[in-house]
Amino acid sequence: MATGFRPLVAAAIFSISLPSAASAADTISGTAVATSAAQAGKSPNSSQCKKDKGLFDRLGGFFGIAGVVNNFSDAILVNPVLNQNPALTKWNQNEAPTRLPGLKFLRTMWIAAMVGGPIKYTGQPLEMAHDRFNMTPTEFAEVGKEIVKALQGAGVAQADIDQAVCIYQTSMDEVVSSADPLQAVTPKN
Known about the structure:
Blueprint: H1 7-13, H2 31-39, H3 55-58, H4 61-78, H5 86-94, H6 96-114, H7 126-130, H8 137-153, H9 158-169, H10 172-175
Helix pairs in contact: 2-9, 4-6, 4-8, 8-9
């Protein structure tokens, strides 16, 4: 399994609010679709992501996916970008101590189902589960960055990371419920 990090790919995938051209590296396994959809402020549909029944196994099955989920779940609790969101900070401080183990189970189930595993996700609809957090496209992208880091840490091949990212991007419309704050633009003279 390859462990090389390609910052340009990850940056392009998760630069939701910043326009950029898709690089040649972005075309791997549907990443260009996810990138262009993210830049347009919407998620790709699952048919736009490359279908590959072997992805579940290449991610390590339930145990490998659970390890990745464990790592990115812990990372997003302390992520400084995500902790600027008051609703997420409140959950991290008040609910994570008792609810995080169950959330990790549900995330493992969701990812396993999405990558072709032999399970059906039976948790709350993502929109219902995330609505109270008022997540922005930037925060969604930040979670994605943590997922990429966890996949890389697990030694997942870049092509499989790209495929998983495309699948993750399909949930954007269900998870994001707030716009990013408008940034001031200085007019050119």
